Amino acid sequence: MSPHSDSGPAHAHGHERGHGRGRAAAETSGHGHGHHPTDVDWDVMATQLESGAALQLPGLRRAAAHLSELLGPRAEAGRILDIGSGPGVMTCVLAEAFAGAETVAVDATPGLLDRARARAEKLGLGDRVAVRHAELPEGLYGGDGPGGEGLGTADLIWSSKLVHHLGDQQGALDALARALRPGGVLAVAEGGLPVRFLPRDIGIGRPGLQARLDALHEHWFSIMRAELPGSTPVVEDWPAMLGRAGLSRVGSFTYLLDLPAPLGETARTFLHTQLTRLRESAGDMLDADDLDTLDVLLDPEARRGILHRPDAFLLSATTVFTGVRGASGG
What we know:
Helix content: 25-40%
Strand order of the largest sheet: 3-2-1-4-5-7-6
Order of helices and strands: HHHEHEHEEHEHHEHHE
Oligomer: single chain
Number of domains: 1
Distance between the termini: 38 Å
Low-confidence stretches: 1-38, 143-148
Shape: globular
Number of helices: 10
């Protein structure tokens, strides 16, 4: 699998968007049979997004604690934006970590915002968590041009696996940086290492299935990027991009999802759902041998299936890139 996205057909990342993992409007047109393989229906994916993010909760909480350290004396942030929030798992983590802040979940999919609102209410955070529907990237710019006026300003802006779903990645970072208050922090989770969940040789088909799924995802990702409205090639040097956006004290940190074998039921179900999506949306890009292997992995009764095999694990690394807006606003 790949660190690029939480939404690709071969991706088993547990991040929310995140993972959150991106919620670009251009990708909400469908998923599965009869649709383009790069289409993503975020309403359909909502439960999977929540499950994946729940697996990542320890890492997300560590990320929030690190952001509090970066803010320093501003750690009691007044306003936080979670851009591309999905079902609001990280939104609520941030609301818990910054008890004095108003935390706003921003997404293009109303159904995901409904889930974010319900999650906040369930956790007793309903009075401090707001939701905001915004088409992205248009919502970053507001009605009068660039600058984040449409969403207002914030002391902390978090965005996970969203920017790579926007055609002009540098332009999106520029807009997010301008929406920061002086001294505020922008954090974008846009890097890491490919997810691993199986040994190289799993006793079914040709060894190296995971590497071939990585290659499939890279192919999918290239197509997705090329077809985005306003797609602009850029060297994805995230620290340099944050610097060009006018931010200082640029840095990064990485947190791990490390669930050893044997996996529990929640993680196994998550992987089974991810592999099912892969089989349905990108099966025509795999050869017959790998398709047969996937069918065994997906068989709920098979001893060597993902729901039962003792060697299944879940390991991934998510890198968060950060930058600070200067005290003068520059």
